[in-house]
Amino acid sequence: MSNLLELQGVTKNYGAVRALKGIDLTLRAGEVLALIGDNGAGKSTLIKVISGAIVPDGGRMLFEGREVHVRRPEDARALGIETVYQDLALFDNSDIAENLFAGREPVRHILGVPFLRRAEMHAESARILSTLKIHIRSTKALVKELSGGQRQTVAIGRAVAFSQRIVILDEPTAALGVPEQEKVLELVQQLRGGGYSVVLISHNLEHIFRVSDRMHVLRQGETAGVLSRSATTPEEVVQLITGAKRLVH
Ligand SMILES: Nc1ncnc2c1ncn2[C@@H]1O[C@H](COP(=O)(O)OP(=O)(O)OP(=O)(O)O)[C@@H](O)[C@H]1O
Prior knowledge:
Blueprint: E1 3-14, E2 17-28, E3 32-36, H1 43-50, E4 58-63, E5 66-68, H2 73-78, E6 81-84, H3 96-100, E7 107-110, E8 113-116, H4 118-131, H5 148-162, E9 166-170, H6 178-193, E10 197-201, H7 205-211, E11 214-219, E12 222-228, H8 234-242
Parallel strand pairs: 3-10, 3-11, 6-9, 9-10
Antiparallel strand pairs: 1-2, 1-4, 4-5, 7-8, 11-12
The chain binds adenosine-5'-triphosphate.
The site of adenosine-5'-triphosphate has 11 residues, from strand 2 and helix 1.
């Protein structure tokens, strides 16, 4: 598999805190890469760099082998990178279709006045949900009426609707009950089947071993190891997370 995204020597400091101390990371086309590490290891900071939410202090980012400068979320979007943060950033009092299209609504101008193309939004939303095998009664349901798992799938649906290449998921199963966790894991597998590359932050090793192809372990702002799922064990991953072992020098 070829490298879709590559980070080289990425650094980020928050004052005296060295959150990223020179990270090299590769994301291949069509893989699920798990980003793993203890609290404070630098996972959120790293995905914020990739998604343009923060600008790193140093290092390079390459997309399909070309250097790119991602300084704002719009820059990441233009490359086809979408991120679902833990807070999901959904609008509770809006319906599913409005959430899927938030900020990118199709409009039609009549005598210079913009009108939302509602029917089109709902039809397209239903198509997106059905492609992702997300079963929700109606795209007119308000987000506040949905379960936690459905909210997560709507947030992922929104990312996928506009991402062409990479979806970044920040602990998508953390706040969910077991049946809903299963649905989200299935969705991650579907994304991979659909040709997306996925970066998955999770603290749940069982989930990680079920859906990821490779694992990038961070520890205190550095890479502790990069592992292929088929060539490692949960025990080894725990040793890397805790610092009992290191595979990168
Ligand atoms: N805005 C900020 N200002 C100052 N320090 C920060 C800020 N954001 C993160 N840090 C620090 O940077 C380091 C890396 O934090 P980061 O949130 O990236 O870790 P994480 O691996 O995502 O942790 P968690 O699993 O707890 O979310 C930590 O020491 C954290 O306290």
